[in-house]
């Protein structure tokens, strides 16, 4: 399965800053389940609480009401795309540098991580983590001598290569910044008189905040004393936003890159139905990922939509793992079919993507065992043939079934009667800003070529 990456939330000047940040992170839990953290500033002291696991497990009422004091707060939920899943790599990352208290939260992935870290270590920098995010801290610190924090941040952003949306707390300033390509989402909003930032607009909905606009590629926004300033440090680089946000990552009720996620996914299903129709008894998704494309496919094709797979919403990360002789149990505990709907039926399954194919194979095998007459699959994105170096956790070709197999071979491996992926042209027909998206995982056209040593665990030998 694919893995989500990170979610950011920040709020400036709110008397319940920590609590608002908790709710913001809670709404973006889908973006990362490994760790969570909140940092606050009360004008004199920076405070932090971080832990492994889900937001509701890491924070309690004592943290929010008594310990995380201050009206400025910064929060992060993480799935690791560089660095191991360890508490030392949980964010926000906090350092003290002279009179500056600096906290940083990062969504994205740098491709020149190893090169920059080797260079910084040769100059005397000492690293505490194996995250690429820590590189920003050292680059900022090196540029502070005689410069403002704003200048230091912009210098650091020009030095790194890759994808990044950042929230930075520097004493009484909050800084939001996006890489020049704009790979990762970051949105500016307002709740009352207070500015807020989040990776997704669904975080604003929960706290009744107004969404103002996305942070632009190559833009830095600074909030100080309740006033907002904007700086463009790069306006020459073409936009290459991650289209996987619209396909899979973002919540369907969010607006990402000024596009309504629900509508885009439904459109992908509609285009898919035009590209490869099929006479079957009904259309069904594997919830929850294929739900919205399945709605579009059903509406366009006129085929009935059935929810013949039921998801158990109460299976958490701490569920006791099955033994080896029960290896298919891990699939069954999340999804279970409605048996009476399956036997003797011709079924069209709608999925949003196939990465390795192993999980889908187990589910199709179960449908066969229940007597399905035909099983077809339509996938609402193109075949993923190339690794992603910008923050999605498939960083080698060996992990990608479509990189090494034909469509027919994949169908046989999974156990399907037919398989069709949405074409790249069909995907672009499904979005509004057709020229602004990164398609590298489909066509290998990398906006930023990866450097030697790129990869999730590229810094682990430095521990």
Characterise the protein shown here.
- InterPro entries: GATase_2_dom, Ntn_hydrolases_N, PRTase-like, PRTase_dom, PurF, PurF_N.
- The chain is globular and about 70 Å long.
- Helix 5 (133-143) packs across helix 6 and helix 9 (261-275) crosses helix 10.
- The chain is of the alpha+beta class and 463 residues long.
- It has two domains: 6-240, Glutamine Phosphoribosylpyrophosphate, subunit 1, domain 1 (4-Layer Sandwich), CATH 3.60.20; 260-437, Rossmann fold, CATH 3.40.50.2020.
- The protein is built from 16 helices and 23 strands.
- The protein is 28% helix and 26% strand.
- A seven-stranded antiparallel sheet has the order 3-2-4-1-10-9-11. Strands 5-6-7-8-12-13 form a six-stranded antiparallel sheet, with helices on one face.
SSE layout and pairings?
Elements: E1 6-12, H1 17-27, E2 35-41, E3 46-52, H2 55-58, H3 61-67, E4 72-78, E5 93-97, E6 100-110, H4 113-122, H5 133-143, H6 149-159, E7 162-170, E8 173-178, E9 187-191, E10 194-198, H7 202-206, E11 210-214, E12 219-224, E13 227-232, E14 241-242, H8 244-249, E15 255-256, E16 259-260, H9 261-275, E17 282-285, H10 291-301, E18 309-311, H11 329-332, E19 335-337, E20 346-351, H12 358-369, E21 374-379, H13 401-404, H14 407-414, E22 418-421, H15 424-429, E23 437-438, H16 440-443
Helix pairs in contact: 5-6, 9-10
Pfam family, one: GATase_7
Function: Catalyzes the formation of phosphoribosylamine from phosphoribosylpyrophosphate (PRPP) and glutamine.
EC number: 2.4.2.14
């Amino acid at each position: 399965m694919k893995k989500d990456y990170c979610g950011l939330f920040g709020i400036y000047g709110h008397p319940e800053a920590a609590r608002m940040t908790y709710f913001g992170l809670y709404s973006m839990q889908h973006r990362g389940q490994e760790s969570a953290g909140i940092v606050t500033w009360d004008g004199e002291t920076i405070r932090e609480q971080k832990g492994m696991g889900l937001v509701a497990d890491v924070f309690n009422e004592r943290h929010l009401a008594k310990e995380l004091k201050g009206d400025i707060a910064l929060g992060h939920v993480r799935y690791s795309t560089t660095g191991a899943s360890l508490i030392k790599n949980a964010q926000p990352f906090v350092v003290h540098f002279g009179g500056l208290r600096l906290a940083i939260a990062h969504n994205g992935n740098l491709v020149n991580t190893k090169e920059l870290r080797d260079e910084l270590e040769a100059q005397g920098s000492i690293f505490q983590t194996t995250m690429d995010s820590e590189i920003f801290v050292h680059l900022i610190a090196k540029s502070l001598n005689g410069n403002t924090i704003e200048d230091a941040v912009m210098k650091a952003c020009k030095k790194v290569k890759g994808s990044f949306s950042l929230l930075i707390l520097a004493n009484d300033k909050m800084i939001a910044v996006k890489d020049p390509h704009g790979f990762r989402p970051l949105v500016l909003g307002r709740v009352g008189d207070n500015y807020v930032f989040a990776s997704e607009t669904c975080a604003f909905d929960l706290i009744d905040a107004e969404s103002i606009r996305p942070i632009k590629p190559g833009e830095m926004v600074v909030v100080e004393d309740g006033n907002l300033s904007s700086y463009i440090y790069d306006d020459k680089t073409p936009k290459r936003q991650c289209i996987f946000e619209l396909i899979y990552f973002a919540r369907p009720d969010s607006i990402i890159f000024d596009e309504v996620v629900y509508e885009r996914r439904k459109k992908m299903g509609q285009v898919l139905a035009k590209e490869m129709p099929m006479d079957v008894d009904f259309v069904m998704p594997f919830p929850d990922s294929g739900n919205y494309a399945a709605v579009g496919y059903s509406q366009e094709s006129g085929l009935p939509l059935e929810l013949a797979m039921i998801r158990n919403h109460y299976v958490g990360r701490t569920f006791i793992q099955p033994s080896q002789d029960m290896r298919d149990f891990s699939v069954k505990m999340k999804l279970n079919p409605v048996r009476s709907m399956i036997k003797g039926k011709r079924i069209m399954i709608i999925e949003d993507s196939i990465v390795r194919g192993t999980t889908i194979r187990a589910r199709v095998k179960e449908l066969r065992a229940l007597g399905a007459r035909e099983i077809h699959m339509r996938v609402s994105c193109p075949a993923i043939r190339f690794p992603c170096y910008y923050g999605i956790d498939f960083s080698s070709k060996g992990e990608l079934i479509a990189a090494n197999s034909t469509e027919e071979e994949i169908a046989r491996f999974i156990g399907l009667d037919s398989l069709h992926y949405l074409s790249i042209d069909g995907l672009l027909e499904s979005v509004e800003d057709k020229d602004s998206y990164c398609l590298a995982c489909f066509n290998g056209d990398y906006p930023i070529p990866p450097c030697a040593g790129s990869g999730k665990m590229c810094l682990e030998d430095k521990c």
